[in-house]
Amino acid sequence: MDRLWTNARLATLTGDGPGLVEHGAVAARNGRIAWVGDAADAPAAADVVDCAGRLITPGLVDCHTHLVHGGSRANEWAMRLEGATYEEIARAGGGIVSTMRATREMDEAALVTGALPRLDALIAEGVTTIEIKSGYGLTLDDEIKMLRAARALGEARPVRVATTLLAAHAVPPEYKGDADAYVELVCREIIPAAAGLADAVDGFCEGIGFTPEQIVRVFDAARAAGLPVKLHAEQLSHLAGASLAASYRALSADHLEHIDNEDIAAMAGAGTVAVLLPGAYYFMRETHKPPVAALRDAGVPIALATDCNPGTSPTTSLLLMLNMGATLFGLSVTECLRAVTVNGARALGLHEEVGTIEVGKAADLAIWNTTEPAELVYRIGFNPLHARIKDGICT
Fold first, then answer.
1. 145-204: pLDDT as tens digits
2. What region does 392 belong to: left with phi over 0, alpha with psi -120 to 50, or beta?
3. What is the pLDDT at residue 7?
4. Which residue, 13, 81, 206, 366, is the most exposed by fewest CB within 10 angstroms?
5. What is the Cα–Cα distance from 50 to 234, expressed in whole angstroms?
6. Do residues 337 and 357 make contact, with C-beta atoms less than 8 angstroms apart?
7. Phi, psi at 276, each rounded to 5°
8. Who has greater pLDDT, 85 or 205?
9. Is the four-CA dihedral 60, 66, 70, 73 of positive or negative sign?
10. Model confidence at 65, in pLDDT bands (50, 70, 90)?
11. Are strands 393-394 and 385-390 parallel, antiparallel or unpaired?
């Protein structure tokens, strides 16, 4: 073995629970987990790390972010404090289009430089895998630029980056509200061109976004390009987007404040992950909660993510999302931990690679200055990370 972490309490996140192993150890070889079990039975290793009883979890997975973007929307937030709604700001040229303008003005290098502090904040909390969406360029060249910047972030830092093409995020102003014509561009040109850079295709199915019929066209183009899909669905209203996503066996449907029982049944049947985004719910002062109990009862996997973006969830703390998932949405400690490990990985199609502490998976681990999993969910504004391991190396 190359390295052994011993004298630890493991939360493997295998099975249906936390998968706790008392007095445990983990061994790695060539960046992969090669052994997991009781420390008394641990194999010999060239490098042995005594964890002094600390908790080890899988490296955390942030499965929904808009990390790459230009500009700030602090002024729009101030407008919302004065009573303006998200929809009103968007229809007046703010919202996504505001960030689009700032993003278009930046080159790839500037986008990477701007995103690095946000990425570093997440890494500092134990994140080892992150999804990064495009969606603020809304032209062929600018969407590709964003995806390249996302890939570059994965080269600049020891983190696994999953990229998502979100060209169907908003109708750019040059199309003067002609969403069908813009969708044609997305399907005919942007998706085929992004196939080598994007790991998945996403869309915004909403009254201020795209209709289910338009999303069908986007999903059909994604399927033709060999890309899996996911969807922003049921955030502000109910358009049955989650059911549509499930009909395409989407990796995830995200937000979901307004899903109904038919959507939930469809997601359960398809294995589509429900990605809940409490940061956006909190920041937008929403009151209509996603139906967690119904998702739980149906066996739909639940993930949590930061939704890091400049307009509706300007947070770079996945640990804070754990607390919000519990306090705002009623998730248990175990559900919260699974939401940012195994279920977050499933939402990216990476559950065979990361998300649990199992032999054969990447040796991506987080070592915490606590023995209790509840501490990771309970505290607010406190980072108990002791060490972060990516591919078997302490970073």
1. 999 999 999 999 999 999 999 999 999 999 988 999 999 999 999 999 999 999 999 999
2. left
3. 98
4. 81
5. 47
6. no
7. -95, 140
8. 205
9. negative
10. very high
11. antiparallel
In a 10 Å sphere around its CB, with 0-12 CB exposed, 13-18 middle and 19+ buried, how is residue 287 labelled? exposed
Query: Backbone phi, then psi, for 305, in 5-degree steps?
Result: -150, 165
- Tell which residue, 305, 319, 338, 329, has the closest CA to residue 383: 319
Contact 4, 34 (CB under 8 A): no
The answer to whether 258 touches 192, Cβ cutoff 8 Å, is no
CB burial of 268-277 (b: ≥16 within 10 Å; e: otherwise) equals bebebbbbbb
- For the chain, the distance separating the N- and C-terminal CA atoms, rounded to the nearest angstrom, is 19
Mean of pLDDT over the chain: 96
Lowest mean pLDDT across 49-63, 73-87, 281-295:
73-87
Q: Are 24 and 37 in contact (CB under 8 A)?
A: yes
Contact indicator for 262, 243 with CB cutoff of 8 Å: yes
Q: In whole angstroms, how far apart are CA 300 and each of 173, 201, 269?
A: 38, 21, 9
Angle at 160 between CA 275 and CA 318, to 5 degrees: 45
387: exposed, middle or buried (Cβ count in 10 Å: 0-12, 13-18, 19+): middle
Distance CA 153, CA 191 (A): 21
Span 84-134, pLDDT tens digits:
887 787 777 777 888 999 999 999 999 999 999 999 999 999 999 999 999
